[in-house]
Amino acid sequence: MTAAISPILKTDLFINNEWRPSSTGARFEVINPATEEVIAEVAEASPDDVDAAVKAAKACFESDAWRSLSARQRGALLYRAADLLEERLEEMCRLETLHNGKPLFESKIDVEMTIETLRYYAGWADKIAGNTIPVDGPFFTYTLREPVGVVAAIVPWNFPLNLASWKFAPALAAGCTVVLKPASETPLTALAMADIMQQAGFPPGAFNVVCGGGSTVGAQLVRHPGVDKIAFTGSTAVGKEIMREAASTLKRVTLELGGKSPNIIFADADLKAAVRGAHNGIFYGKGEVCAAGSRLLVERSVHDQVVEELAERARKLVPGDPFDKNTRLGPVVSKKQQEIVLSYIEAGKKEAKLIAGGNPAKVNGKGYYVEATIFDDARPGMKIVDEEIFGPVLAVLTFDDVEEGIELANRTMYGLAAGIWTRDIQKAHRVARAIKAGTVWINTYNFYDAAAPFGGYKQSGFGRELGREALEAYTEVKTVWVGLK
Ligand code: NAP
Ligand code: MG
């Protein structure tokens, strides 16, 4: 069954460059959300397995095999991993779509960005440098940038492999070692990646993958004294829990959390482009995108036109088999997620005006699909406006002038991203500065690049991934003083 599903499918834990079943023999099921069928039974790490993975990462971190590698050699391993992943691109994309449900073309964008991210940080490995400091007195003073140690990377199910690479690529480039815990819904591409990392030549313990629940495996990693840093992407609620738990061992923590990002359409925008951007901003990735433009803010004078065109587009966005090349809306990741999204839709029906979608759907009689859904007449204070839904559900709010637009945009506990649509460049830059968010897109939405830092303001977390900025989270600065007299 295994090979029939995918030649790169792995279902055991990857610890110290060895494939191992759980020490208890336990396994959990991974479901295809498009067919509701079991794809695989993956080993569920026991506390002993998690401990073994952390110890392997620690031993590697302190080993000659890892320490004696030059920065350039570490970079070469990452380049090799990127090449191997590229060779298996098609297979990896299929696996990502199988457990996540995203259309195949989206998986391709994800895996291609993973390759880019590996190459980008491969290039950084031998460019992570300290400074010489012109201090007062007869001293030669300089800084070293040293790897922080063992990194536990805990990731969600929406961009399973890509978001993992945003963590393990800079971590390994900086000289850290990694224990990766994928989300229970989507462990398969992380495990396939482990196979690639081993083939690329990473020594035992440099890269480990342990699967299992967040409250067990994840929580143990957060408490484990052998882990030096937690790199987490997920919900704000779990992020807060991790920060509390990490306090007892004073681990370094970076948190990429939720969002309720405003996408603001001004009356002077190229409305065609803005409507397309608003549509893709919420419906790409089934809305299971941390930076989804889930609050659409429209200036009153263009409201009717924008909303009409959006609703028409949404009605045409028919849920489909994610393996069909024409599909633009796959199933949400799980039955549980479908229930959460539908409960928000029910709340929305009581508070606002439903103008598109609003129902669950099936394709060929199966699957956890949700129609592309739009609510108009939404206002702050409503559940669908204030809370992250993480599904294909858009709330449309109306504003009268720039100041009100900015005020509404910032009226949220989150601050991950925002979109601005206008032809007025002064307005665009003024609003970009006024918005409290880690990323602002002007006349575009949902673009990412390995070189462009990404992360949150406010309760969307702290620390940055991607770009040069991400490397800071994986290094410590050591200051060395040399007396010259
Ligand atoms: P989640 O429930 O927070 O889970 C994320 C990861 O943390 C999973 O691997 C999960 O394991 C694990 N986990 C859960 N409880 C834990 C605990 N107590 N200690 C340690 N680890 C724990 O989030 P999700 O439901 O998977 O994903 C959706 C959320 O992620 C949304 O809120 C979204 O906004 C956010 N997100 C943010 C970004 C960003 O870059 N800012 C990107 C993507 C997603 P299990 O699921 O296996 O139990
Ligand atoms: Mg969860």
> Compounds present?
NADP nicotinamide-adenine-dinucleotide phosphate, magnesium ion
> Which regions contain 5 or more consecutive residues with pLDDT less than 50?
none
In which range does the helix fraction lie?
40-55%
Overall tally of domains: 2
- Class from secondary-structure proportions: alpha/beta
pLDDT averaged over residues: 97
Give the CATH architecture of the largest domain.
Answer: 3-Layer(aba) Sandwich
Q: Based on CA inertia axes, which overall geometry fits? A: globular
CATH topology of the largest domain: the name is: Aldehyde Dehydrogenase, Chain A, domain 1
Distance between the termini: 72 Å
Say which CATH homologous superfamily of the largest domain is assigned: Aldehyde Dehydrogenase, Chain A, domain 1
Query: What's the helix count?
Result: 17
Biggest pleated sheet? 7 strands, mixed
Please list the strands of the largest sheet in the order they lie side by side.
14-17-18-13-12-19-20
What is the radius of gyration?
23 Å
Beta strand count: 22
